[in-house]
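Researcher: Let's run the pair from yesterday's discussion. Sequence first, then tokens, for each.
Model: Starting with the first of the pair.
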Amino acid sequence: MGAVPLFSEVAGQQALPVVEALGATKRFGSTTALADVSLRVMPGESHALVGRNGAGKSTLVSLLTGLRKPDQGEIRFGGEAAPPLADRDAWRERVACVYQHSTVIPDLSVAENLFVNRQPGRRGIIDWRAMRREARALLDHWHIDVREDARCGALGVEARQLVEIARALSHGARFIILDEPTAQLDGDEIQRLFRRIEELQKEGVTFLFISHHLQEVYEICQAVTVLRDARRILTSGVERLPREALIEAMTGEAGGVACADAASRAPLDEVPVALDVAALSGEDFDEVSFNVRRGEVVGLAGATSSGRTSVAEAIAGLRRPRAGAVRVSANEGGASVTLPYGDVPAALDAGVGCVPKDRHREGLVLTQSIAENATMTLVRKLARFGFVRPSLKARLATDAIDALGIVAQGPLAPVSGLSGGNQQKVVMARALATDPRVLVLIDPTAGVDVKSKEALLAMAERAREQGRAVVVASGELDDLRGCDRVLVMFRGRIVEEFSAGWLDHELIASIEGVDLNEA
């Protein structure tokens, strides 16, 4: 596999790289976060940066954006040394990062976000009319279809990302880092974002594209750099790098994501039903009915707007439906329990465990330890006089660390210091701590690396083997491969059911509302 050349031909001349990291090394105490890493991004390209969680991507981004200085090596822009860290205006003129979690101020308008701390003024007073006029001109110039007076908190994820890109361009930056930009977008939104990236590339904007969705690398990028264990493993043209080789470079192992083979399982016709969802309706879903047997994994597939996430949240008590019922069977010989609407404690008591969609907002208390997070659902059962012994929490957390392979210094380590994959394992540990009969997983592998995906999916398989009913609501095909059945939702309703062994193109066509049999 050939490496991307140092120079590219632009207008018949050799072009310098937009940005270079040359032998960059960064240490935090005894930990080496980057070891002699070099990266070259050429003008007008979209260059992917991939690697497992903890590989060094975030550290490299912090060096490229001037948040940190390398201990060894250097950062260069257009062949010139990077400005001093204290000169933030100079950095903004060279590079900007659009993070997975938006940095726009939700209560301000688009125009205010575009010109925050640099509003046009007259005689010391903000000139609101001029600011809106300049914002409109900026948005029109870059063909971004967002109203300048819209409140950013009312915008969708896609529009907020475009506002952040426009803000970066307004500073003069022509190098944009996109950190997991599609993590919260559905199929149509992703394709629109990709079209905008391609259009901006033609206008001279260069992108560093960070994603765990490897298919996107092949759709939008021309070059890819792989980091593993704080080192650069390879840089290659995308068209010259087979998918299997890319995954092998990321993991150090041959092959793709290891998933359970649901197609080889025996049928569960005589097994009792553990979860019954009857005519469930809510804000974005209607008349959804299905059941899940003990030891069965059922997938809910569909675009972000299909209602799949809302149905899963309603089962777990995270969302209040307006009609229908969710019934959870008791242990052998016991009667089923109908869950009250939008009641998480009641769902926990009935035997429902959940890995929510957003681990940062719904799954973790980042300032607390692994022990505190992993045992959070057990406090009512373990507490005596409102107090749980720290030694008991630590012992249970240690068991979870061992069972799930969480990489951490110990049960008292704060979850804020863990990689995304290990944070998600802590969320899984919390969901399993109550020994649930029904396990609801919502986008369980979003934003985690390949090996963490395998570990999390293996935990779902183990839950199935233990006789739990498992619901997996996800848009990731790898998450759904271990399902006995996949129910496809489209515009709030279940439109099709696929048995294990489905073909990718057939499932994707159903998710997108495409009839492959139509002439």
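Model: Moving on to the second of the pair.
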Amino acid sequence: MPQKADLVINNAKVITLNDSHDIEQGVTIKDGKILMTGNNEELDELIGNETEIMSLDGKTVVPGFIDSHVHFMQTGMNELFLDYTEFTSLDELLKDLSSKIETSSPGTWIRVAKYDDDKLAEKRPPTIKELDEVAPNNPIWMNRVDCHSCIINSKAMEILDLTNEELKNLEGVERDTDGQVTGNMRNVANGVVRKLVMDMISEKQRLQAMDYATDLALKAGITTVHSMEGGKLFSDQDVDILLRKWEENPLYIVVFNQTTDVGRVVDLGLERIGGCIILDGSFGSRTAALLEPYTDDQSTKGELYYSQQEIDDFVMKAHKQGMQITVHAIGDRAIERILQAYEKAQQQYPRQDIRHRIEHAELINREQLERCQKINVTLSVQPTFEYFWGGPGMYGTRLGEDRAKTTNPYRDIIDSGCLLIGGSDSDVTPMNPLLGIHGAVNHSNSKQRLTVTEALKLFTINAAKSVYEEDLKGSIEPGKLANLTVLEQDILEISHEKLKDVQVEKTIIDGQVHYQKNND
């Protein structure tokens, strides 16, 4: 007699993503795992007296989304900060700051998330003088949308104990023509300031941030996050919080500690290391390391934050420990650096089935792709970047028309045989796999576009493979975890231009509904 299910989902379109790419009418679940998939009649045989039935009226079920690159705790903390994403002029930005300060007591921190000077009419950030005028008694920290530069005022410098002598020795402190500090911090200076500010967040606020981020993920249909925490741009306190609290969280959280301290990660009992260990910066801040100069500033090719020897030594030590490694490398010059380190480590200490990763890899070239394929390097990309900045947008401005056509070469990556996985880089762009799928399918360069199924795999089975979890997650097959995302529309049938508008109906983890749109 067949085993009866705890839950039967029927009258659906189930995109299984199994090896045969079967489409079924439903799925049955027992003890948090998938029993079987099939048509309605087959599923009826598993209905018992205690079985719950969920009829979906033709809605689409896909494997639970996996976001492969999230700064999870920072995403939640942004809910505690001011969100200046949409401001389009310095005047309105400064007026809003002024109004917030009027209701804040002297000394209270004003933290701003995700301002974007490229969206401002003036095409520049506010100066320290402008910030001091609106906030003489309150410290201000404004984080640029890409996290690779920030703005602070004089009160923040005072509280952070950044004296003039210390500033002189920090690379990346911007000065005006008179040699005065403008408040704009890039490169090393940005990392120093960010870390000081992040370390000042209380544990109570961090726990609140974790709850915020969890809610955002569940509403987006996400069941697993690859959480990039700690390191030079964040706080290691976030790693400690996640490791203490992850079992209480409904999400599956895969922690990457963003540090080059291999001993620390070994002591924490983690099997992987890295994330945004930043080999270079970003295109927006003109700090991504390029082989050729920026089109809109011929004086720079960006920045490299580690020497080849430093990155070689780190990779070799972690590789010998059997760890999975990943680093942030956006520009082709930075990608070259990490590839050399991976090749050297694998040549000297060969390992079977290594799945080292590169995060972002936005300007990877074909020769580098061939080398990635030879040593099984996974490319962890963010297709929302193409949606927000692709083509003639920020990429075109920074890189020029020809190079902008070579960014995020998803078709080339798949054709090369490399594993391609998708993430959001939240808090840089929203945790929203459907927007990522939209970005990959509607790539600014039509030659690099993916099919909907290929794009869906970036956020499901491919993402699971990237952390050795393909036997547990990523497809809807018997024995796997019952992690499912229910969509209101059929992503295989609607027009590609509408993918970003598809709504998540339910998020199911271990067979339990943790988000339902009607209860939102």
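Researcher: Give me one sentence on the second I can quote.
Model: Residues 243 and 255 are 8 Å apart (CA to CA).
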